[in-house]
Amino acid sequence: MNSTLTMSGIVGRASRLPPGRLALESVNAGATSEKAGEKPALLSASPRCAMLLFLTAVFAYAQAAGTPPALRPLIEAEEDIYSYTNADNGAGPLWCHGSTCLVRIGVEVFASGLETLTNIKPLNNCRWTLYQRGKRGWQLQQVDETGRTREPAPMVGFPHGPLFLSANPTLTPAGTYAGPARPEILLFSARDVKAPFERLLPIWDDTPSFTEHSYRSFAADGPGRGLILLQNIGYTHAEWAFRDKGGNWVANGQLRWPSGSEYPRPEPVRVCYPNVALQGGAVHFCGVSDIVEPYPEWRAYKKQLTGNEWDYDFRRLFYTWTPDIKRERFRDWVEVASRDKTCGWIMPGDLWLGPDGAAHLVWTERALDERLRAKFFPEAKQSNAINYAVVREGKVVLRRTLMLAEEGKPGVIGSCPRFQATPDNRLVVICYASGQGADGKAVAENRLVEIHPGGEFSAPVKVPFNKPFTSYFTATVRGGSPASKTLELLGQRQGVPMTMSYARVRLW
After folding, report:
1. What average pLDDT does this structure show over 406-422?
2. 112, 118 in Cβ contact below 8 A?
3. Among 95, 266, 386, 463, which is least packed, fewest CB within 10 Å?
4. Quick check: pTM over 0.85?
5. CB count, 10 Å around CB of 407?
6. How many CB atoms lie within 10 A of CB 208?
7. Lowest mean pLDDT: which of 24-28, 278-282, 332-336, 365-369?
8. What is the pLDDT of residues 217-244, one digit of tens each?
9. Would you tell me how many other CB atoms lie within 10 Å of the CB of residue 224?
């Protein structure tokens, strides 16, 4: 699916270089290679070196002619930040994966963590922590000294600061299983994160019944210096509050869930784990259905298998947006993908807003629940995919499958797809790939794929980590970090249990 020049075409173009251009391009290419951390080869009069010079000139000319360089990842850092203990409360350091806990502000990079309070019973038996990477590596800067919470603390930032952390401390006494909570935004100086922070309280219309199960989303428009917080209320809606560049909470409201009128018992379809993007006043929201199994026969059969009264549905991907959060309501919900007919599974990956305002979406999709196949849909075939779509003005205008593993064939399963956007709007997807390759060998690695305008995409490129990242956040533009040709990750690595790690990868 690549649109690349053939070798014969490249050679033909290179042979038409004007006199002296070949040597000039060779020198430029050597300088570029050295800047990338590679040592240029010593020159000699041998035929082999002459061929290397020629190929270098070909590559440089291809760049000059407008062909973008292919992905060539270089690992610049791969290191552990902190270890944690299982809180046994249903959450964990990556539980808010629709948002991010990794933010870059200029030359500084920050990560929020989650610490288990071993002497406190669940659910609210954790506290947030804040780390910064400096010359001596990652250093703990602050911890929550007063509050207790259940979930991790997503963060956002602006280009020159400050840094914002979303907290949701419980209002219940220690030992209470569940109860009310209070959303807070903590403002830190990016120049001195050890300094006392400022506590910001979003403005709501009434007094919403917030709890420790916040399912909250935190997003920022870095250049526009705006931010938005959304936090779920039960199974009916999310409350949202918007803060403008002047530091004022200028708008708030409710995002009502889509209707599940087609179910045997109609109900709102709660949407969770969303990717949220804020650009100017526009807000884009894409998440997955998260309700108790709505089909009685499936629910009863699952109870026979698990013994549980409940089993949650994650199999419908919904999207909505507003062009101006201060003045216009969210538009009608769009169902981008569904595996509802075969009890499959969907999970959002990421969302990126292109320069034309279109929303680029990526997600993982599994065709069916194999436990139910024999009884309810015996002819269905299993598949696992990473899918991509572009939505413009509420309509899906393009779809692609970036990775597919089908039943009965050796296949590599992709998971945790994330976008990395560059300053010149090149768009790259990183994912974790596991399974069996075409050669029959086991695969466990991270891969990069570049998506080109028009929906074509490059062949996957392996990221040469010492230990691959199996799940992770990125320093995303949705969190206010700058677009960059360097990818940064915060997450868990294979073979390093109960540990959050960091990596930095130069893409070209």
Report:
1. 95
2. no
3. 266
4. yes
5. 13
6. 18
7. 24-28
8. 999 999 999 999 999 999 999 999 999 9
9. 15
Q: Going by C-beta distance under 8 Å and a sequence separation of 6 or more, which residues neighbour residue 109?
A: 102, 103, 132, 133, 475, 488, 502
How far apart CA 503 and CA 369 sit, in angstroms, is 34
- The number of residues making up the chain comes to 508
Domain ranges of the chain: 7-64, 74-506
CB 349 within 8 A of CB 386: yes
pLDDT at 143 > cutoff 60: yes
Q: E strand or H helix at 370, and its extent?
A: helix 370-376
44 vs 201, which has greater pLDDT?
Answer: 201
Residue 151 near residue 212 (C-beta atoms within 8 A) = yes
C-alpha 245, offset from chain centre: 25
Please report where in the chains the tokens 């990079």 appear, as a residue.
109
Angle at 370 between CA 369 and CA 372, to 5 degrees: 75
Measure the CA–CA gap between 83 and 85, rounded to whole angstroms. Answer: 7
With beta carbons less than 8 A apart as the criterion, state whether 109 and 99 touch.
no
Give the pLDDT confidence of 168-189 residue by residue, as tens digits. Answer: 999 999 989 999 999 999 999 9
Instruction: Please list, in sequence order, all residues whose beta carbon lies within 8 angstroms of the beta carbon of residue 420, skipping any fewer than 6 positions away.
Output: 427, 428, 429, 430, 474, 484, 487, 507
Instruction: Reduce the DSSP state of residue 83 to 3 states and report it.
Output: strand
CATH class (in words) of the domain with range 74-506: mainly beta
Q: Retrieve residue 35's tokens.
A: 């800047």
Predicted local confidence at residue 438, as pLDDT: 85
Cβ-proximal residues to 103 (8 Å cutoff; 6+ apart), any chain: 109, 110, 111, 155, 156, 157, 163, 475, 479, 480, 481
| Residue 63 CB-density burial (10 A; 0-12 exposed, 13-18 middle, 19+ buried) | middle
Whether 229 contacts 183, CB under 8 Å: yes
**Are 480 and 471 spatial neighbours (Cβ–Cβ below 8 Å)?**
no
